[in-house]
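## retry 2 of 3
previous attempt timed out at serialization; input unchanged, resubmitting
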Amino acid sequence: MEKNNPRVNSALMQQFVGQIVRLPCKIKTVCTSALTVEASDGGEVIVKLAVGEQVTETFYEIIGKVTEPGRMNMLIAIHMPGDIDMTIIDKVIGLIHDPRFFTKIFCTTDNDNYPS
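## retry succeeded, writing output
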């Protein structure tokens, strides 16, 4: 069965260390092997680029493994075209992680991506 990869903001990353997540973000700086991005909650995240991955646009959803709070290793970057309202995305992420909905709709406790 395919696992859910929860969408997170920078504040939620600490709950998912060692797990694969989806991070909607705005690119701030691009270096040879890493990116600095702004997550939907305005927090800064350092992303180690996947081999061969090129980031040339402004908004992406990065799927990757959280190595520590505020840092992740990219598996893939999905371009999000247009001018994205990150405040709306952050509100959706807040609803996803609301205890009333998280285990009932978005994730189950037997899923490896459920934070302990």
